[in-house]
Amino acid sequence: MMPAEQRVYSYSAVLMGSPILLKLFEDDQHAAAAVFRLIKQQENLLTVNRAQSQLMAVNHAAGLHPVVVSQSVFDLIKQAKAVSLLADSCFNLAIGPLVKRWKIGFSGNTVPSASEIQSLLPLTRPEHVILDPQTCSVFLQQPGMEIDLGAIAKGYIADRVRDELHRLGINHALINLGGNVLTVGAPLHGATSWAIGLKRPFGETDATIGVIDVVAKSVVTSGVYERYFEIDGKIYHHILDPKTGYPLDNEILSVTVISDDSIDGDIYTTLLYGMGVEKALNYLATIPHIEAIFVTKHRQIILSSQRQFKFTLQDDSYQQL
Ligand code: ADP
Ligand code: MG
Prior knowledge:
single chain; 321 residues; alpha+beta; T-fold; 2 domains; nine-stranded mixed β-sheet; 8 helices; binds adenosine-5'-diphosphate; binds magnesium ion
């Protein structure tokens, strides 16, 4: 048995429909409770499925009137809009009506008709999200518009958890928000870095193809196998192409982003996914603080650069490039 001071304490809960895991190096129920409370609070503000949600109030007032939101929700929407407006961006905060129609990950999936998709696309224009910093309000210009922050909420909340842990004087911890992993400092004992598994696409829950070693970094993975349905041998997954209204389709099965902040991980997984491997690697060469690992349909693992992490391949049915 390990001496008490060598132990790792794990706390878990299911929030935001995802398993949440917190690892600490001392038994601190108070800190764990504070972290889970914070996650719940933030979820209530940002989800589109809750009555207390500020986002839902904005969506309900689409085409009618602006809605005042808290400064932090305003700032997050502002950032999401800016990313949505980047040239050729595959990220779109106003994708809501299409996400709702596809219902990917929920039962009763059908492929929408082409005409249905065409009728929803005009309701997903990010430039129709009107922000007023003076009143801290958000107005969706067209009735039927809906903001969806599902792609970045976990990253944003993971960063808030890190802030809270620092506030509580905790400098060594790990939080896993349903696949968004954020490490605070290094492990206090044992290994000198955190070992994060890279998931095997379409594998068993815990199946991994390799290990990512990091210290004080966020590791976010977005994969087509996370939520999808299959009809006639074709897979329809949960990351939609804002231009076509259909799931993005290219050689990528998953993108993992290693960065300081988890919100960046969330934003860049979507952007890079949309670019495809070749364009994404060229783009990453221009932003050294963001690094990525791509897993492709050809069983290849492609790394951008390895300044902030170390990757060890463990599955020889995949080829590392
Ligand atoms: P997860 O971590 O849940 O696997 P992601 O972080 O990749 O998922 O985000 C997927 C979610 O983002 C979708 O379920 C949907 O709510 C939303 N979404 C889908 N397509 C887009 C898009 N092109 N831009 C922004 N958000 C999207
Ligand atoms: Mg994401």
